[in-house]
Amino acid sequence: MRIDGAVILVPLGTTSSFAVLAGSTVTNTGSSVVNGNIGVWPGSAVSGFPPGVVPLPGVIHLADAVAQQAQSDLTTAYNQAAGQSCGTTLTNQDLGGLTLVSGVYCFASSAQLTGALTLDAEGNPNPVFVFQIGTTLTTASNSSVGFVNGGQGLSVFWQVGSSATLGTTTSFLGNILALSSITLNTGANIVCGRALARNEAVTMDTNNIDPSGCAATSGSSSSSSSSGGNNVPEPGTSAMLGLGLLLFICGNRRAGLARYVRGLRFR
Fold first, then answer.
1. Helices (H) and strands (E) in the chain, counts
2. How many CA atoms lie within 13 A of 16 on its CB side?
3. Tens digits of per-residue pLDDT, 129-148?
């Protein structure tokens, strides 16, 4: 599905250092891993770490100036995402089974994902996707968002007018900017992106959230023919070529030695 109109990268400001940001509280159950800062403002409660872990250099900010600034920047980002011109309306359509290209997509009310949503980067390493959702975002269990033909999740933005809920074992991409709350059910992961709630809680249960896990994916449009003919053999190919050359040289040397010995015999 292709859309018309320009889409603009949403600036996160200082919020970009956070993997999880909430307005009231962050709660966790189970062995969640958050690769990035966790913050709460104006609330001051974070629970469930441990057993959840925040690997260094991640830090937990509780109602401090850093979290306050991040919430301010989140409000700016939320408003910027919400203010972009809608390219295609998807109201009452399930995102599952769709293939979308870079652009702005809007839902007048709720958005549902059941199954797989495919984002086609069309060879662009950083295509921008903005989803404007009037009320709730909900994913069914085992749903997924993934890229083809390049792309990575940090340029995907989900502006949610109330709350977002990721179903169990969902594999999600992008930055969730929710006005109210965000809930990640058991085993739901944001493999490249963030959970950013302006006013209420972020609730977790054995989840991985990783803004750094965003290696661009390759696809059919990223074939070797697009490199201008400067194809570089893969390591395995290079090794085979080298072995073949060595055998060729050794074979020539042995053949030459055999001819020399036969010459000696007939002198």
1. 2, 21
2. 9
3. 999 999 999 999 999 999 99
